[in-house]
Amino acid sequence: MSTEHQRYSTENQADAIKRYADERGYQIIRTYSDAGKSGLRIQGRAGLTQLIADIEAGQTAFKTVLVYDVSRWGRFQDADESAYYEYACKRAGISVEYCAEQFENDGSTMSTVVKGLKRAMAGEYSRELSQKVFAGQSRLIELGYRQGGAPGFGLRRMLIDEAGNMKGILSRGEHKSIQTDRVTLVPGPDDEIAVVNQIFRYFVRDGQSEAEIAANLNAKGVKTDLDRDWTPSVVRQLLSNEKYIGNNIWNRNSFKLKKRHVRNDPNNWVRAVGAFEAIVSADLFEAARAIISSRSQRLSDEAMLEGLKETLEQHGFLSGFVINEAATLPSSGAYQNRFGSLLRAYSLVGFKPDRDYRYIEINKRLRGMHSDIIRDTVSGVEAVGGKVDRDLQSDILTINGEFTVSIVIVRCMQTGAGAFRWNIRLDTGRLPDMTIVVRMGQMNELPLDYYLLPTFDMTRPKLRLAENNGLSLDAYRFDDLSHFFEMAARAPLLEVA
């Protein structure tokens, strides 16, 4: 099931299947489920994949598979795909029965025709739903509402209720909690707006490059909206984003029906002009865009590839991050637009990546964060009167001489289906009493939340977290470490008495 808001919740399906089994004298000995998963592709469907793998390997103690209805195999765009998985069961001598269908799956002509029709209907349902969702999202964009993402330096997210009344500014990491509420962008603090305009003036009037602007801002101690140093790519993104002149842009990229990621032509972008209050004049923005456009158009394919080759020789590898940080190169997006993809541009300069080098930069950043988070944790415990002993070799913290804590930072990864996952490896060697899992956000820039996992309750050394994990794991989830600090607090004896 893909969402909780439907009759296909796993609980409802399980109840219906159990009633069916009881009526026919079946004993359910194993359940395969894919909670919160899209049925458009087999990728990410761990339950279905395991079922087929067990059946094909002959590692089954059952003779019948009970399925809620025909569409539960998946809403594949190729109707033959769901038929294939049913056939894989039958080929291994295992029958398939549908618990909520009005026909018996007995191999008759009627059941075959009905199943084929229902498989096609399941795929068509997804296509129609995709079109409706796209139309709805496009409408919200045209009305000036934000469809996710950080607001950016100089801007803030304003929460609006169903009647259009402003409810307040959303802080970093906060999200709306009511489905009918909307989010729009409003100007941020005056000092940030002044910096944004100064960046445009540096670029347009003073002729400074993105690298020079970033160096100037860092020298002045100005931080980005993510509280980090400025880089040329961050400056370039700011100079080219139309939200600073009040335009709401959406559908630059799409991933419809889980088929493939597509960089859409600008003519297909959904655009709402003047949706937000502008903080940069249109003339200044257009002047900056003209400079960026002329700079990229002036370079021939040969010149772009020659610059890419020089960067490869300098760094030994290429990635989108390396390209964006190179002051002499166009953006990675320019290479994608010119050559169709970064991989094709790589191949033209003789580079074949054997891994995604973005992870190198992300891991480097997370390693740098680890000591900062340990320092902040120690400071938080000491602030509430607790005592911390730190093992400098293992970074295990002993709190008040009573329990030990390990801190793990977990990178956010995106699956091929577009979902976000976090892989946790617990410290089974030293066995701390508790592991603080710092789960990073989608951009791996800031912590998303924290899990306080007691070793006693963890039965596996590795965990794979989704965005929502059910009560068994999310009961340990917290937005910050204040709960942990309360555990470490020391109370005066008179107060206890």
From TrEMBL:
InterPro entries, sorted: DNA_bind_recomb_sf, DNA_bind_recombinase_dom, Resolv_N, Resolvase-like_N_sf, SSR_resolvase
One Pfam family cited in the UniProt record for this chain: Resolvase
Gene3D superfamilies referenced in this protein's UniProt entry, alphabetically: Putative Large Serine Recombinase, Chain B, Domain 2 (3.90.1750.20), Resolvase, N-terminal catalytic domain (3.40.50.1390)
Residues in Recombinase domain copies: 174-298
Signal sequence, renumbered to the chain: none
Protein name, per record: Recombinase family protein
Domain of life: Bacteria
Matches recorded under PROSITE patterns: RECOMBINASE_DNA_BIND, RECOMBINASES_3
Resolvase/invertase-type recombinase catalytic domain mapped to chain residues: 1-148
